[in-house]
Amino acid sequence: MDVRRVIAEGLQMRPPRLPVWFRYDMHGSLYNDKCLKNQHYYFYRSEVAVLSSNIQEIVDTVTTPVILVEMGSGNSEKTRSVIDVLLKKQTTLTYVPIDISADFLRETSESLSRDYAGCLDVKPVPGDYNVGIDKIRTIPGRKLIIWMGGGFQNQAYQTQITRLQSLAQFMTGDDRLLVAVDVTQEPKVVERAYRDPDDDAISGVIMEAVSTKHQTIVIPGLGLSLTFDADDKLRLHEGEYVSCKYTEAQLRHIAKRGGLSLSRIWTDADKHVALCCFSKGAGKQTS
Ligand SMILES: C[S@@+](CC[C@H](N)C(=O)[O-])C[C@H]1O[C@@H](n2cnc3c(N)ncnc32)[C@H](O)[C@@H]1O
């Protein structure tokens, strides 16, 4: 990916925008972890609840031995429960975490390698999802691919579909893709969840930055000079929609467009999170 070109193009759009991944340097990754602890951020808690109540069934969707791949792995905290169950079914496990936040990924991988010494072979792939997909398509063997923490739904809608298509291209009938998505349908509950943990204001600061005055910002490295009026916004995501909330029908639709079948869904008691199991081929549809 030509990062300079992507950034320059985004900043020249109206309204100007930066891609979602741009905020994930070391500080951004740590800030993301902090946001998870916001008492109104239901997604994290519901995701943990879905995983812990169904972990055995979830892992049993794939035949072992398997290679575990994670898209946008972050701190890999929830992944540990998947690793623990897999390691009861196979003596060693290769784990391929993919994340654009290279320094954070390195630290997380080192800590996992220490904690699971002798049984976990961590092979981190620092880079964009496309880099990761190109890498995993070359790794032979059955795969369990997981995508948790809302990383999937934070992409532009068309990108969600093209990424499913890229995964479907190399997935075999034995591979499984598990994606956790938000299925909350009450707008007020959603708005509360995205408050900045350091501020009482609603989180425009997370999804968009607002110019407080008329100002011109010069970025010599990109050859750009940007003028913002007071109240002009800089979007911190690339699409029209961000952090999608899905109905089950929409999930089936997106699976079909991505060339996959939605073979199983687990939800939490509050119906906030759906952990979706996608597979290649017709698959049995249960929920
Ligand atoms: C919302 S966090 C989720 C982290 C973790 N999976 C979890 O469940 O807590 C999204 C993660 O995806 C990574 N990420 C965002 N955009 C990415 C991209 N385009 N390519 C690769 N990783 C990306 C971020 O660095 C971050 O670690």
Structure explained in plain terms:
The structure is a single chain. This protein has 287 residues and is α/β, with parallel strands linked by helices. It folds into 2 domains: 1-37 and 201-242, no CATH class; 39-187 and 244-279, Rossmann fold. It is 37% helix and 21% strand. It has 10 helices and 12 strands. α4 links the parallel β1 (67-71) and β2 (93-99). α3 (42-59) packs parallel to α4 (79-89). The longest helix is centred in the first third of the chain and has 18 residues, at 42-59. Residues 201-205 and 283-287 have low confidence and may be disordered. The protein binds S-adenosylmethionine (SAM). S-adenosylmethionine (SAM) binds at residues 20-21, 24, 29, 32, 72-74, 78, 98-101, 128-129, 148-151.
CATH top level of the largest domain is Alpha Beta
Number of strands: 12
User: What is the average per-residue confidence, as pLDDT, rounded to a whole number?
Assistant: 90
Low-confidence runs (pLDDT<50, min 5 residues)? 201-205, 283-287
List bound small molecules.
S-adenosylmethionine
Distance between the termini: 38 Å
The H-and-E topology, N to C, reads as HHHEHEHEEHEHEHHEEEEHEE
Helix/strand-derived category reads alpha/beta
- Indicate the overall shape: globular
Strand content: 15-25%
Largest sheet features: 8 strands, mixed
Number of helices: 10
Task: Domain count, please report it.
Answer: 2
CATH-assigned homologous superfamily of the largest domain: Vaccinia Virus protein VP39
Question: What is the second-level CATH architecture of the largest domain?
Answer: 3-Layer(aba) Sandwich
Kindly identify the CATH topology of the largest domain: Rossmann fold
